[in-house]
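User: Oxidoreductase NAD-dependent dehydrogenase, Streptomyces platensis:
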Amino acid sequence: MAQRFSTIAVIGLGTTGSALARLAARSGRRVIAVDTDAAALEPAGARLTDTGPGTVDLTTRSADIMSADLVIEAVPERMKTKCEVLGHAHHACAPGTVFATTTTGLAVTDIAFGSGRPSRTVGLHLFPQGPVDREAAVEVVGTPLTDGSVLADVQALIRDLGQVPVPVPDRAGFVGGALTMAYLNDAATMYEQRYASRDGIDTAMTLGCGLPRGPLAHLDAIGVDVARDTLDALYERTGDRRFLPAPVLTHMAAAGLLGLKAGRGFYDYGAPDADSAADPGDALPTARPVRRIGVVGSGTMATGIAEVCARAGYPTTLVARSEVRAKEALAAVENSLNRAVQRGRLTPEQLTSSRESLTGASELEAVARCDLVVEAVVEDIDVKRTVFRELDAGCGAQTVLATSTSSLPVIECAMATGRPEAVVGMHFFNPAPVMKLVEVVRTALTSRETLGVAHATATALGKRPVGCPDRSGFIVNALLFPYLNSAVALLDEGILTAEDIDTVMTLGQGYPMGPLQLLDVIGLDVSVAILRTLHTTFREPCLLPSRPLEQLVAAGHLGRKRGKGLHNHER
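Assistant: Predicted structure for Oxidoreductase NAD-dependent dehydrogenase:
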């Protein structure tokens, strides 16, 4: 007979424990909320005020759990502590009581053995920093010894709590922990290396990928000490260097800079702007005015950038390889502008003004008098270098030349000219009229005046510029693609479906799109090319394109644009 779990004990009332207690109480159940630290009960009680029809009994006495049908431990990420808590519960509770662990990095199987009742112990991996007040994914972790009826009952409970159970095996980090913690650790390392500022990293990932929060703010929400302990556990279990905690996390934990719960971590929550780490563009000299903009290229990115410039009121010239291509590119912009009017994002007057601001041409001479020229041709360094040589020869001495490359070295474009100090990267995101981020990429030779022009122009275009040095992947791709590639490697293990992986990250972490869905949207061929470029630069094994990506590209299954990829889009 299925268990309804009418009385649930939650031991440990931190972020995860409090979230579980609140969910259970809102469903009308009795909750025994236990924390042996009496000082933790008051803040826990404050978090558990809106519990609906259920009741919450706060206590410091572990013995009070004996009437529970389900005992959930949510104590710190240490094997000995978790096993001791559940071992005590084993002696205190009835034989039929089910146990659950909220571990992210430890083996549920080992905790199950330590609990004394391995067949009745499961893992419950929640995402308390994920979606609020709507259904969210909960990973339900079974072990080789977990009774099938126990798993079924726990999954039914999760559904009754208004959440979405995703059954996963007991592998390191499951799905959400494995993918998220490596990404967060990479971001902490990037910050520690001073490659980009705190605000730059978080802004890049929120505006560039649509994530609900940046990785450093996410670490603060989890708790820097909790993140460090989880990474430690994952590294001990796997030996994967991506889980080796960034030294900055250990240093901050030792200093008591634990994040949101302590009032200070990567951010100061008492004075949010007090320790803001300024982007390099913040103190740049006043930029000379940009009156005309040229865009070289006729593909999706080129037409998108040209539309952005025209809509901002800049006289804009788009140069394609032929008159036919130029006309097709202008038609693409026209269609996009018409759609914007239909959706209420653009007025008819703005449409007319934007149309009048944009002209097309087939010769680079047409951009000779522009103050800024943005190259947006095919992602091939030889083609780009040729374009930059021709622009250098034809444009005025004061013209700033920018490349929109997403992964190639900006310095290679700069050195094809006689004005490397006037060359900068301006990485727009697709679709350019919608996405607010522009990564402004400086080489070792880019002048501060050139950076000033790039930052000021991006701002005038209604974008948020974020500065970074010229390194493969810049900020977004350097953090995004290892995460995407790891998701494909996880799929390749054959124990989870693409739908399960995407569900965990969308309904768990609140990401706008699952990693496998996102790869299909980007294009698997484009993704493989970016990963190869990243691997050439960093030589990290995690950057070698996963086998399924290579195989799908070879078979012509490139994602949404071809109807098939990691998902089937032909249905």
